[in-house]
Amino acid sequence: MIFKLYGAEVVIGRLRKRPAAISHATVVGAQHRETMLSERVKLSGEVAYLPWVKFTGTDNHFFGNSGALAEQFAEWGVGRGVQLEAIVSYYLTPQLSIGVGGRYWAMWTTDAATNCTYGAMGLCDATPTPPQFFRTVVEQAGVTVQASYKFNGSGALLTK
How many domains is the chain partitioned into structurally? Predict the structure, then answer.
């Protein structure tokens, strides 16, 4: 599964039912917040809403484990999504911190269709078949580990 957000490709989990790709997505309402829980511990989090996600994909069916293609179904549609992320960082020094956190992505279709575009030995009857409407959902949860070092407070490079 490949999601393209702002031109960057991010490999994401797998669909509940079939492989596919989200080709375009719009992110709005991203909120990033940070708070110091103690002198050395910082909590940061981010929430983003995807009001528009474009879905395109192909569902391939094979004859057993032979690798021979039996049927091929084109899939397309639009939907929505959300991203949640939280990280707890510990400052080893004022410049060096390490952190661990988690990220959750969810995207779902609100309007999607599929149809058989190829069928070996008449499996699809008339090719292509009329579109059939369906719903698909993608979810992923992951763990993030990070390290950060600040060279100095002004952002300028250090010199000798």
Answer: 1
